[in-house]
Amino acid sequence: MNHTEILTRYTANFVDEMIQNGIQHVVISPGSRSTPLSLAFAEHEHIKEWVVIDERSAAFFALGLAKQTKAAVALVCTSGTAAANYYPAVVEAYYSRVPLVILTADRPHELRDVGAPQTIDQLHLFGNYVKWFQEMAIPEVDDGMLRYVRQKAARAVYMACEGNPGPVHLNFPLREPLTLDFSLEGIWKYKGMVEHSARIPLDGKKRLTEEQLEAFVSQLTNKKKGLIVCGPQADADEQFPEQVVALAEKWQLPILADPLSGLRSGTHSKENIIETYDALLKNKVIRDRMKPDFIIRFGAMPVSKPYLFFIKENATIPQFVVENHSGYREPTGNVTEFIYADPTTLCEELLAVDQPAFSEEWLHDWKAMNKVARNHFLFGMEEKITEGEAIRGLREVIPEGSTLYVGNSMAVRDVDTFFLTDDKPISVLANRGANGIDGMVSSGVGAAAAGKRVTLVLGDLSFFHDMNGLHAAKHYGLDITILLINNNGGGIFSFLPQAEDPKHFEALFGTPLHLDFRKAAELYEANYFAPETEEELKEILQASYEKKGLSIVEVKTDREENVKWHHEKWQAIADEIFFKNGMV
């Protein structure tokens, strides 16, 4: 058997087993050393390959696609710095628990550490940011080797998805020649192969024992004022919103719902959902007045910084954090009891226990304050559109069943404030693992590759940072609307103490770009619009959703005016709560 046949059967069996175990999408960045993997994926009839030239963009594209599909996505690249360009997305995938299977081609062992071109040390390249690493064997073909590659492929998919999902890395040392021969018979299997040669283990859901459940509920006895907090919930199932709101209504507790929790949109009840808590907790008097007796949190820490202050100020309050699997997402260092159990199952089981007696007045106060804040966010319109109004207008017209992908910094905070509850089913995604602005365009475009209409909201710095991510949208004709909020720099820094330093602020933090993004839209053949009022924005967004392909809707704002407008909103809410209603 010659080298080409050995390489063909080795690679084809590996690729086929990955597909047998659930891989439906692969993102490929062209290169020479990765030729066998790229060709095998491209030839297999049961997978969709996406070619994204820049590896950094490709990795974030895969991240967005995996978030949207809630399934592992494979990545393929050549050797050298190509693999290193995956690093930012691998870090994000690790912290945001997104399953990626990274397949890097490499020089064979005899070409390492001898000055061969395009050769770096790729062993454990991503360090602790992958759940599992494997250096693959040099290709050979016998039944034992083909079983080996299938077992590694199956294990890679399983490891990416088991427990808390995340990235895994397999490194392939490959000798030349690198082409494959698809005329060979039976390359997608070996003679001893059964229907499914390397089955993924069956994983059950975690749940508390009856004794553990009773012990948990007993800790809430004689407590009157509780909070249910729902942070980002990338791994929650579709039944979770129904079950957690049912629990909140039975126990008469408010739910502080992060925009990434999945609770603000959909047909489930919104009766006890407090979506304006970020604005409410900005006020120190409200934080002091609304001190809870306990907190039950599902998912990661919410986006809201005022909520973080609130938690830090109440470090002695009993806090219970529910995680699907192991994990320690508690950045305040407060004393916390972790509950490792499926959140939907836990809510169902808590609904079946005797109802604790909690304060109805406590719930009433939260709902009354939420109503005040909602009214301030929903009504009133400026002559020229503000950043908050842009999110408010988007919320009104975004299509049912679509996805909102949110950038970091100011964008996600405005979504937290102004994307209020709605019965329209909307999926909200964001890269809140490492919270960086890099790769946001590619992530949104990758999410659109799953076939669902996507609206990407981000700032001008995030857009600039990843403009080459637009190429995949153009190349594949993906349906995505980008709401680009351009305040000519880093708007979020205007809310921070750095803004008080006039000497260095603009150069180091404001960082104005002074770019005409209309020309970027022209480069990538996108539809481009620049509305100036909220009504005009809504009309343009609505029109963009009826168009195919890429649309860029740019809203230009002023950073200083934006800060002033936000502060006025927050103060008006506090004034009404304090003086008009006399609630606090």
* Helix proportion range: 25-40%
For the residues shown, what is the average pLDDT? 93
Main sheet makeup: 6 strands, parallel
The helix-and-strand class reads alpha/beta
Q: How many domain modules?
A: 3
Residue stretches low in confidence (pLDDT < 50, at least 5 long) are none
First-last Cα distance: 82 Å
Q: Assign the CATH topology of the largest domain.
A: Rossmann fold
Using the CA coordinates, give the radius of gyration. 26 Å
What does the overall shape look like?
A: globular
Number of helices: 22
Second CATH tier, the architecture of the largest domain: 3-Layer(aba) Sandwich
According to CATH, what is the class of the largest domain?
Alpha Beta
Q: Would you report the number of β strands?
A: 18
Under CATH, the homologous superfamily of the largest domain reads Thiamin diphosphate (ThDP)-binding fold, Pyr/PP domains
Summarize the structure.
InterPro entries: DHS-like_NAD/FAD-binding_dom, MenaQ_synth_MenD, MenD_middle, THDP-binding, Thiamin_PyroP_enz_TPP-bd_dom, TPP_enzyme_TPP-bd. The chain is of the alpha/beta class and 584 residues long.
